[in-house]
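Tokens as discussed.
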């Protein structure tokens, strides 16, 4: 039987999500990749000993990540349910027809019910709307999320991939419903900064919302994997990731090498420094990291050994990023 480490709360910093009482660890584990039907369950079990983030369509095929999590939760983690923050989302394609996608009340309620069934849970701690729906009024989406709270299926509400204007509208709608709207999930890293820093940060601050960022390592660009060019076996080389093509990577290789030098001077890997770059943002509560093996997750956690950038380090990083 799995027994959690008695010192598990001694080695991680926790932050409040905006002005709510919800605290999240600096790093949270996302199950976007490496948790589908084609990934060894023994490896998944080894990794799933931390924080959790899910979506209804994660895995391979869609829903597999939640199903596998449900199995491992039942076998190993169920005694610790009240110590876990477990989240899921709805809003991307899940099943055929008009109700397996986007943000209608029908879609959100059905998606949440299916997610809970796959995971074997009575509730999730956070349920996100995964992306704004151009054909559904925000009021309908907001009411569906609030219904989940009233039914006890979700404790907190989050949104993901909304721009600043839509986030502001959603915050105003949910405020009138006294909703526990506490967090926004968005892409953020050294190479993708504008959405959070320019558009969302002032909206999050005004509405007392936290941020949880995904893709902090830019799909592996901000690791040592690309320091010597594009590996033959990489997904970028095989063109499996449309937004991580060889053409997109080539101009950034020099920047990656320079950023690695800054990281080494800080006593960190490039990946660890990239994670610290995320948590230096005042609005960021937690950073979602993926892992294909436990050692990767352990290396990521070491980022907390140096969470402060010296002014000259920040200046050097900004100079590197500004280069054409």
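Sequence:
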């Amino acid at each position: 039987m799995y027994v959690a480490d008695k010192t598990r709360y001694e080695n991680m910093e926790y932050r409040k999500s905006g002005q709510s009482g919800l605290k999240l660890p600096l790093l949270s584990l996302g199950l976007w990749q490496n948790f589908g039907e084609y990934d060894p369950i023994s490896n998944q079990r080894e990794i799933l000993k931390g924080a959790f983030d899910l979506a209804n369509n994660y895995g391979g095929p869609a829903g597999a990540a939640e199903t596998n999590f449900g199995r491992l939760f039942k076998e190993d983690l169920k005694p610790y349910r009240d110590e876990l923050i477990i989240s899921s989302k709805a809003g991307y394609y899940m099943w055929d027809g008009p109700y397996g996608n986007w943000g209608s009340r029908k879609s959100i309620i059905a998606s949440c019910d299916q997610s809970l069934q796959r995971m074997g849970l009575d509730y999730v701690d956070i349920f996100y709307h995964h992306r704004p729906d151009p054909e559904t009024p925000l009021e309908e989406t907001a009411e569906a999320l609030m219904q989940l709270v009233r039914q006890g299926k979700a404790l907190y509400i989050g949104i993901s991939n909304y721009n600043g204007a839509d986030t502001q509208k959603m915050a105003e709608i949910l405020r009138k419903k006294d909703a526990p709207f506490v967090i926004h999930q968005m892409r953020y890293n050294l190479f993708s900064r504008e959405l959070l820093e320019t558009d969302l940060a002032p909206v999050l601050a005004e509405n007392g919302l936290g941020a949880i960022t995904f893709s902090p390592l830019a799909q592996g660009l901000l690791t040592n994997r690309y320091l010597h060019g594009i590996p033959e076996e990489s997904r970028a080389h095989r063109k499996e990731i449309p937004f991580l093509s060889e053409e997109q990577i080539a101009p950034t290789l020099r920047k990656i090498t320079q950023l690695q030098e800054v990281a080494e001077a800080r006593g960190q890997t490039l990946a660890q420094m990239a994670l610290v770059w995320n948590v230096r943002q005042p609005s960021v509560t937690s950073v979602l990291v993926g892992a294909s093996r436990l050692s990767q997750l352990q290396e990521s956690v070491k980022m907390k050994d140096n969470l402060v950038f010296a002014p000259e380090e920040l200046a050097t990083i900004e100079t590197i990023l500004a280069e054409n």
